[in-house]
Write a structure and sequence with these properties.
Layout lengths: L5 H9 L1 E9 L5 E9 L9 H10 L3 H16 L9 E6 L13 H9 L6 E5 L8 H13 L3 E7 L5 H7 L4 E4 L1 H4 L6 H16 L3 E5 L4 H9 L4 E3 L31 H10 L6 E2 L4 H11 L3 E5 L5 E6 L4 H4 L4 H6 L12 E2 L3 E3 L4 H9 L6 E6 L2 E7 H18 L9 H14 L3 E9 L1 H8 L1 H18 L5 E6 L2 E7 L6 H18 L6 H6 L1 E5 L5 E5 L2 E9 L8 H17 L4 E4 L2
Parallel strand pairs: 2-3, 3-4, 4-5, 5-6, 6-7, 7-8, 9-10, 13-14, 21-22
Antiparallel strand pairs: 1-2, 1-8, 10-11, 11-12, 14-15, 16-18, 16-21, 17-18, 19-20
Helix pairs in contact: 3-4, 10-15, 17-18, 18-19
Length: about 575
């Protein structure tokens, strides 16, 4: 490489590097960091893009970029635990056009810092149009052959994204912020992002939801199957490496009972097959030994951080296994047959905590995959075959059917208790609501149990109609109901309380249709009490205890919550609006 002009060496001393974490979207464990350039404005440039345009115009883009990589790597190595992280580095695709481009420079830098090539992820963006796709593909294969990971950045906003995906399957795909901004309220964006995730997953790519700025956006990104997340909601870019943490999102675990269900996880773990994996750098001979030793027909392939990169199927190894010279060829490092990557096939990779429906959806879209690889905190833990997946769904449905209330078809006590346990463990802001009918026994005694069931069904229907569809709704039994809701910008605690009060009023009005005209006009039932005395009983209503849980809540367990509900129920029934609110 040509030496730089002293001015640009001076630029290197002024420029600084900020890092932004990229974390596992389910566990919050840090996966890697993206290196971002800082300080170009102090050099007189309007933007980072303008700075790189100048380097390109002066034909020193590649030479400067190599020096910049050295600076980035040096600072990256000051991050605690950097050996276990991936470094995402934005590669201006125009460096490939520079006349002084040469191979091996990054590899030599990595040797100097004792880093594995797989720890580097080169991000390719669509911001600069790729004019020669064939030349670009050859060079990308060069980076891949040297062991580097490839990511497509800003996917979906340019003209060449899907073309890149076709010609050079990346290891990682980063969905552009445009599709994630307000994705929780924009069905079209959600559909497009879901399709991108599905396509990438089927091709064996990991997906980063980039630019996530709210908990609602994060929840939808989890729902559609994203593996990783990056954005201001996780952490803003920082030039202080001591601020890079090992875990993030600890207080933002999801509340919907469909997600992160311990029951689903237990069922999956029970049926999970712990297939022995092979490392990317291992030999074909090691692969053959694993197949023979375990009498297995497929082997998962992982990198040095135990992140799955695909599977190798036995039928693809017939050229080696059935040949008398197969093992000799495998041992010959100059043979094409010695390249383990040659035989890797993509397979859906799903997190243990992912919604079961999403797992099934990703698997069903893959025509040739025999199953899915299961990860926890991005690390491979086992294999779930298609047959076992069917058994998981069947067992889960049986558990749901046993727990479901036969009258209202709402989740019963098992799932309600599971929901409460998750909310308390997460310590994020949530509202939990207990409902109890007022004067239900006199109504039952007077009008009969069949009409009592009709009233219970009425309340269940009104819950669905009046309350947000995102709330968890359960039937404890009899005339007792439960609702859980995430407290956030979309559903602040005050708004949730308003919805509950609206439900109470709506039920009190609607239930009058279940009385005879004389009782409605009188505003009460005249009947005998348990001692045989004639007395008046008020018309049906419902009372609610609303409790806000979170970091500041004193509720420590499900039993504690149930005791609080029982105590506050009396207060709610005496209140003018039939509500007892704790924590507002």
């Amino acid at each position: 490489m040509e030496p730089l002009h002293p001015l640009y060496y001076h630029y290197l001393t002024i420029l600084d590097i900020a890092f932004q974490p990229i974390v596992d979207i389910h566990s919050g464990k840090i996966f890697g960091v993206e290196a971002l350039l800082r300080g170009t404005e102090t050099l007189g440039f309007e933007s980072i893009a303008a700075f790189f345009d100048r380097l390109y115009e002066e034909n020193i883009l590649y030479t400067f970029d190599i020096r910049l990589r050295e600076k980035v790597l040096e600072k990256f190595c000051t991050i605690q635990g950097y050996k276990n992280l991936k470094l995402f580095y934005n590669l201006d695709n125009r460096v490939l056009e520079m006349t002084d481009f040469s191979k091996g420079n990054t590899y030599r830098l990595l040797n100097r810092f004792d880093l594995d090539p797989k720890s580097i992820v080169f991000e390719l963006s669509e911001h600069n149009e790729i004019l020669n796709i064939d030349h670009f593909t050859r060079l990308m294969h060069h980076y891949s052959d040297e062991g580097f990971c490839i990511a497509i950045d800003d996917f979906g906003i340019g003209q060449s994204g899907y073309k890149l995906l076709y010609h050079c399957t990346p290891n990682i795909l980063k969905i552009d912020r445009f599709f994630l901004n307000a994705i929780d309220t924009d069905p079209k964006k959600k559909l497009l992002a879901r399709n991108m995730v599905q396509l990438a997953t089927l091709m064996g790519c990991r997906v980063v939801a980039e630019g996530v700025e709210s908990e609602r956006e994060l929840a939808v990104c989890k729902e559609i199957g994203s593996h990783l997340v990056q954005g201001y909601f996780v952490q803003r870019p920082t030039t202080d490496c001591t601020l890079i943490a090992e875990h993030y999102l600890v207080q933002t675990l999801p509340f919907k009972e469909e997600r992160r269900s311990p029951t689903n996880q237990k069922i999956i773990l029970k049926r999970l097959e712990s297939l022995k994996s092979i490392m990317l750098g291992d030999s074909i001979e090691t692969l053959l030994d694993i197949l023979n030793e375990k009498e297995s027909y497929l082997v998962p392939v992982v990198d040095n951080a135990m992140h799955p990169v695909g599977i190798i199927h036995e039928h693809n190894l017939k050229a080696i296994a059935c040949s008398p010279y197969g093992r000799s060829l495998a041992q010959n490092r100059s043979s094409n047959l010695s390249a383990l990557e040659t035989y890797i096939e993509p397979i859906p990779v799903v997190d243990l905590t992912m919604p079961l429906e999403t797992m099934i959806e990703l698997f069903s879209l893959s025509e040739n995959a025999p199953g899915v690889l299961i990860v926890e905190s991005s690390r491979y833990i086992g294999y779930l075959s298609a047959r076992e997946m069917i058994e998981v769904v069947h067992e889960r449905n049986l558990i749901r059917a046993r727990d479901e209330n036969p009258l209202t078809r709402l989740p019963g006590n098992f799932r309600i208790n599971e929901y409460i346990a998750n909310v308390i463990a997460c310590q994020s802001d949530a509202a939990v609501i207990y409902f109890d009918f007022d004067h239900f026994k006199p109504y039952n005694d007077c009008y009969g149990f069949r009409n009592g069931d009709r009233v219970i069904l009425l309340f269940a229907e009104l819950m669905h109609k009046v309350l947000s569809p995102e709330y968890f709704k359960g039937h404890i039994g009899g005339d007792d109901f439960f609702v859980g809701a995430v407290v956030d910008e979309k559903h602040p605690f005050e708004k949730i309380c308003e919805e509950i009060e609206n439900l109470i009023v709506t039920f009190s009005d609607a239930v009058q249709a279940f009385y005879e005209l004389s009782d409605r006009e009188r505003g009460c039932i005249v009947s005998e009490d348990r001692e045989g005395n004639i007395r008046e009983f008020k018309l049906l209503g419902v009372s609610a205890v609303v409790i806000k849980l979170g970091k500041d809540s004193t509720i420590e367990s499900g039993e504690h919550l149930q005791r609080t509900f029982a105590m506050e129920k009396k207060t709610a029934k005496k209140s003018p609006n039939h509500m007892s609110i704790i924590g507002n």
